[in-house]
Amino acid sequence: MAHVVKSDETSYSKERFLGDIQSCVAQLKGSQITEEDRVIVTVENSYEFLIAFFALVEIGCSIALVDCMADAREINEIALDSESRLCISDRPLLLSDPIRTLLVSEIVRDGGRNSARELSFSAWSSRSPVI
Q: Which residues touch 26 (CB under 8 Å, ≥6 apart)?
């Protein structure tokens, strides 16, 4: 079985990876996120980040990646300036209305088991689907 994402302890198959993306797409669409929305993502490099990012790409949102070390004030300024509707984060943030914050652990079924420094990527075979 080919793996697309590996860590020291966990490997994710293409099927699992694509399934997790589809599950996240459903969660986001259930939260009324559409292709017209602008979304901020401020999450450490992790499996959850990959899933959330590719789910937003599939929906067709405009995505603003913000340094995960940025404080809430800076994220809020960027969100207001970009007219973002949603912020996906790996920590709770209090942002100005109407910006909602979703924790990445709430929309990705992996639930945060992998740290950013553990992940690496396997090479995609030529038969791999394009995401």
A: none
